[in-house]
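== Fold encoding ==
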Amino acid sequence: LGYVPPTSLPSPAPQPFSDVPTTHPFYNYITYLAQRGIVQPCSTAPMKFCPESVITRGAVATFTGQSLLIK
């Protein structure tokens, strides 16, 4: 699998995470998933996503399960 440009994603809401600027290559994906409750912040004061953090297999399973429930 390779990188797929986010051309088909709707325009995201204002920047929800202080560590994911609008210039971040995955900004649209991160914002889209956050708006739908699939991903959660790693910190709430300030609101951060921690895009460079390593995630566990359990977290991947959770993301996948939550995304399958979206209609």
User: Anything to note?
Assistant: The radius of gyration is 12 Å.
